[in-house]
From TrEMBL:
A GO term, aspect molecular function: oxidoreductase activity
PROSITE patterns registered for this protein in UniProt: ADH_SHORT
Organism: Pygocentrus nattereri
Biased composition (Polar residues): 344-359
Segments of this protein annotated with the region Disordered: 335-359
Keyword Flavoprotein: no
SUPFAM superfamilies, alphabetized: NAD(P)-binding Rossmann-fold domains
Lineage: Eukaryota, Metazoa, Chordata, Craniata, Vertebrata
InterPro entries on file: NAD(P)-bd_dom_sf (IPR036291), Sc_DH/Rdtase_CS (IPR020904), SDR_fam (IPR002347)
Record bears the keyword Oxidoreductase: yes
Name by which UniProt lists this protein: Retinol dehydrogenase 13
């Protein structure tokens, strides 16, 4: 029997070391033990992956959770599961399709009318490196869902967030923002050859720029806004990347994938941390790489680009703005439905659709 003690001990040490190394490399659990009883949290894309795990943990900590999802069947099932596992009855499924401005406006209207407060908004939902496609309103799918949809949703909920202050907005970006570039001449890939990787990186850079500009506009309101990179997480988001579709990657690289790619539960820890940590009260306009605050890419620090992107985004989604838009992807707002501007036109537009709430 003794001859097995050493091999078993070595094996156990290796396994334990691998687990500790994985936690170290991937960031580990949220260090805050704070509870959030009575606080209302809206989470987009909460029926699976990081969003579901975030909803689960915040429900466990006493929050009133609104899961905003496109697939209501999956959302209802996830909400039931979370209610059962946390014994928190205040977990609700609500329909939200970020590829539709009509759906976003309908969702925001219901939240503003039915909810007394919104303490935390977590803009979690995303699509990644998907095939060419447009949203219901004609936007590139990745720009539309990842950025423009959340841009509109956040602006429509700002009054509620201000009334609930101190409150927080958390935007999930990606390390991919580092190689992103905002192409103001063709934001929606109407003219150039579509590149799904570049489209994804552009959308994630836009999120960081939006975060910093929104934080600037909300200074003094009690609403904080921060962006984060959750790490590399094993979720459905990566289904178009093909990372595990070859024999080589699924066998030879598996040990490295184990160390570098985290579970959705671990991937949710940065969102949870930014949502509840007491030490982050008042911290705004920052970018977090997992649980650590870091400076984003230089392009994400360009104030002029951030302001220009804000103005164009407001125009695209039908919020009030006045600006010159010499880009093919610009849209003239007619009521709430945008139509393309000619590729070679420069047109000054004023859109009194509704008042955009800013500080």
């Amino acid at each position: 029997m003794r001859k097995f003690i050493l091999p078993v001990s070595v094996f156990g040490t290796v396994i334990g070391g691998a687990v500790l190394l994985k936690d170290y490399i991937t960031g580990g659990p949220c260090p805050s033990k704070a509870k959030i009883p009575g606080k209302t949290v809206v989470i987009t894309g909460a029926n699976t992956g990081i969003g579901k795990e975030t909803a689960q943990e915040l429900a466990k900590r006493g929050g009133r959770i609104i899961m905003a999802c496109r697939d209501m069947e999956k959302c209802e099932a996830a909400a039931r599961e979370i209610r059962g596992s946390t014994l928190n009855p205040h977990v609700y499924a609500r329909h939200l399709n970020l590829a539709s401005m009509k759906s976003i406006r309908s969702f925001a209207k219901k939240i503003n009318e039915e909810e007394k407060r919104v303490d935390v908004l977590i803009n979690n939902a995303a699509v990644m490196r998907c095939p060419p496609g447009k949203t219901e309103d004609g936007f590139d799918m990745q720009l539309g869902v990842n950025y423009l949809g959340h841009f509109l949703l956040t602006n429509l909920l700002l009054d509620k967030l201000k009334d609930s202050s101190p409150s927080r907005v958390i935007n999930l970006s990606s390390l991919a923002h580092i190689i992103g570039e905002i192409d103001f001449t063709d934001l929606n890939w109407d003219r150039k050859k579509f590149d799904t990787k570049k489209a994804y990186c552009q959308s994630k850079l836009a999120i960081v720029l939006f975060t910093r500009e929104l934080a600037r506009r909300l200074e003094g309101t009690g609403v904080t806004v921060n962006a984060l990179h959750p790490g590399v997480v094993a979720t459905e988001l990566g289904r178009h990347t093909g990372i595990h579709q070859s024999q080589f990657s699924s066998s030879v690289l598996s040990p490295f994938f184990y160390l570098l790619i985290k579970s959705p539960k671990l991937g949710a820890q940065p969102s949870i941390y930014l949502a509840i940590a007491e030490e982050l009260e008042g911290v705004t306009g920052r970018y977090f790489d997992v649980l650590t605050e870091k400076e984003p890419a230089p392009r994400a620090l360009d104030q002029e680009v951030a302001v220009k992107l804000w103005d164009i985004s407001a125009s695209l989604v039908g919020l009030e703005t006045t600006l010159s838009v010499p880009v093919s992807s610009a849209y003239v707002t007619k009521e709430t439905h945008p139509q393309p501007v000619a590729a070679d036109s420069t047109q000054t537009q004023t859109h009194p659709v509704e008042t955009m709430t800013t500080a």
